[in-house]
Amino acid sequence: MPNDVRLLAGLGGAFLLGLLLQFLGCALWHNWWPMLTAFVYVLVPMPYLFFGSGGGGSNLASSWQDAGKFLVGFSAVAAIAIPAILYHAQKIALGALCMELLAMLILGGTVLAWQVLSEAEGSSPFYY
Predict the structure, then answer these.
(1) Where does this polypeptide localize (predicted)?
(2) Are 97 and 83 in contact (CB under 8 A)?
(3) 100: which residues sit within 8 A by CB, 6+ positions away?
(4) For residue range 45-59, what is the model confidence (pLDDT) as tens digits?
């Protein structure tokens, strides 16, 4: 149990660090254009929530799941592309771009770690 609490605290800390970098990327350069990626972070899981839980082994359910996976991938690429396009258009500084990309990596790594740890073999460490 103590390891589970430390693990959960570490994931929470990493998530908060990613959010902090997201806000600092905007606040330090007095430019809130990079906050557009925050909308993408909200949109990324939506196709999976709508299309990913389809039951059955039919081809129709499989094609909806594939469409959901495609939209999740598209949204994840947009999380990288939006800051890069803003930097290329000279709307944000290089430091803001680096902070936004680092925030995306930390937030994405936190979500992936949560998924791997919650789907581990046997009982999940987070659900009692």
Answers:
(1) Membrane
(2) yes
(3) 21, 22, 25, 34, 37, 83, 92
(4) 787 777 765 555 567
Q: Dump the DSSP string for 92-112.
A: S-HHHHHHHHHHHHHHHHHHH
pTM of the predicted model, to two decimals? 0.80
CA-to-CA dists, residue 67 to 46, 54, 97, angstroms: 12, 12, 30
- Give the type of residue at 54: G
How many C-beta atoms lie closer than 10 Å to residue 80's C-beta? 16
Distance CA 40, CA 19 (A): 13
Q: Where are the domains of the chain?
A: 1-119
